[in-house]
Amino acid sequence: MRIAIANDAVMAVEALRRVIASVPGYKLAWVAVDGADAVERCRLDTPDLILMDLIMPVMDGAQATRRIMMDTPCAILIVTATLEGHSGKVFEALGAGALDVVQTPIFGGSGQLEGAATLKVKIASICPLVSAGSRFDRVAEAGPINTPDAQLVAIGASAGGPGALATILSGLPGDFPAAIVIVQHLDQEFVPSFASWLNERSALPVGVAQHGDRPRGGAVLLARTTDHLAMVNAQSLGYISDPRDCVYRPSVDVFFQSIVRHWKGKVAAVLLTGMGKDGSRGLKALREAGSLTIAQDSASSVVYGMPKAAADLDAAVEILPVEMIAGGLIDFTS
Predict the structure, then answer these.
(1) Active-site residue among 185, 202, 228, 291?
(2) Any residues with CB less than 8 A from the CB of 1 and at least 6 apart, and which?
(3) Is the Cβ–Cβ distance between 26 and 17 less than 8 Å?
(4) Residue 138 scores a pLDDT above 70
(5) Residue 107 has what pLDDT?
(6) What SS3 class is residue 102?
(7) In what order do the strands lie in the sheet with 75-80?
(8) Domains detected in the chain
(9) Residues ≥6 apart with Cβ < 8 Å to 242
(10) How large is the C-alpha radius of gyration of the chain?
């Protein structure tokens, strides 16, 4: 496995070099001195894994992770000297696609590397993902993703949504073939940590949607800003400011209605617990377009507002308790 290092600290680089050299089958690909350098080196020579520092000059590890996962995706492990005071950056990097985080090994008084064993375990756990390859294939090389056979699961949620989403995602297998895109009403500051939290409960990778991302089979994307997440063309997601008068930003209705306009394949749309009516009109439009539409039932909803509005509009083909929604989505893809 070819492993790269992105770190501006000389001693940290030397520690990571020694870890890589100590394991048969591991080879050092290159060393970058900051995040921008890592982005450029990855563009020229994409390794199997990058050991990415968090705090670096020019461009930090979270920003570099986001750029790399957009342009030349590969496995990224955040390796940082300290987590104290940097949890926001950690969650940002994890939300952008980094797989895990571990502390940088340090040289002890006897010259031995402390923390090397933990790092080796982390790298070993990533090896199967690198070998499988599919999670890090570039979208451009994967061919058209929005075809009549493509499958998309679109989910909207508000109050009570995190628990409902965890229940659904934990019920889906790791080989679930459809792309999943979620709009959860949540302050944008907490979206990266929410993605990380869901990642721990899901066999599918959960990330934060960036402007220009494409929905990909077997992966989950979360809306991340106060602008509206939408399909902006036949292939890509993006963030739009209009309509500006929406009470909820991002709006589930805006997202669902953009799918009606642009998605060519099969759609299953789910409206979960939440206050108000956001998503009900979009769910109705999707039902009228022939999509499978599901609303959470009253008994399992923390707030039976959004799914009730959908039921009142006859927007839902099925009304299900949250524990049964994953099964319905598995049936949808079979």
Answers:
(1) 185
(2) 25, 26, 27, 48, 49, 123, 127, 130
(3) no
(4) no
(5) 87
(6) strand
(7) 27-32, 2-6, 49-52, 75-80, 100-103
(8) 2-137 (3.40.50.2300), 143-333 (3.40.50.180)
(9) 228
(10) 21
DSSP 42-71: HHHS--SEEEE-SS-SSS-HHHHHHHHHHH
The one catalytic residue in 37, 213, 253, 278 is 278
Q: Is there a catalytic annotation at residue 158?
A: yes
Q: Is 228 a catalytic residue?
A: no
Instruction: Output the DSSP codes for 293-331.
Output: EEEE-TTT-SSBSHHHHHHHTT--SEEE-HHHHHHHHHH
Identify the sign of the CA torsion 140, 142, 147, 150: negative
Terminal-residue alpha carbon distance, the chain: 35
What does the pLDDT read at residue 155? 98
Cα gap 321→295, rounded to integer Å:
9
Average pLDDT of every residue of the chain = 88
Angle at the Cα of 232 from the Cα atoms of 216 and 174, rounded to 5 degrees: 15
Omega cis (within 30) before 73: no
Does residue 140 carry a pLDDT above 80?
Answer: no
Phi, psi of 51 (to 5 degrees): -90, 100
From 34, 48, 53, 158, the catalytic residue: 158
Cis peptide bond upstream of 243, omega within 30: yes
